[in-house]
């Protein structure tokens, strides 16, 4: 569970690309050696042509999230991620935007047609993976299920 806000610097949209890596090892590409959950400004013009599995809250390349529940840039969003076995659930500002089973979603290959060797990891680390965008987090809490 965490609050996050994308800094505006007085602009309408910010180009933000950061992800939450879960069940990741300490080495390798955490996005593929673990599970990557997208955190980005869905409405930024640069992202208007992404694949459905690339938008905020999605399990990158595997399960797309519902769109339309992010607060405007500059406002705090509340997000909860529940990773319980193969089930991943993302709740954004009180709305469930993703509730899926990663094993079922990938049994015939992933949506992005790439290998995700860490997708079914049972354990690992949590990390924020980014490309230099300014994003603020507060009240981050981690609870063992």
What do you see in this structure?
The chain is mainly beta. The chain has a single domain, classed as Jelly Rolls (Sandwich), CATH 2.60.120.560. A hairpin with a 2-residue loop joins β5 and β6. The radius of gyration is 14 Å and the shape is globular. About 6% of the residues have low confidence.
Short description:
With 145 residues, the chain is mainly β. The protein is built from two helices and eight strands; from the N terminus they run ββαββββαββ.
List keywords for this structure.
five-stranded antiparallel β-sheet; Jelly Rolls; 145 residues; 2 helices; mainly beta
Helix content: under 10%
Mean pLDDT: 86
DSSP strand tally:
8
Strand order, sheet with most strands: 6-5-4-1-8
Q: Can you write the helix and strand succession as a string?
A: EEHEEEEHEE
- Sheet with the most strands? 5 strands, antiparallel
Q: What's the CATH H-level homologous superfamily?
A: Exo-inulinase, domain 1
Strand fraction: 25-35%
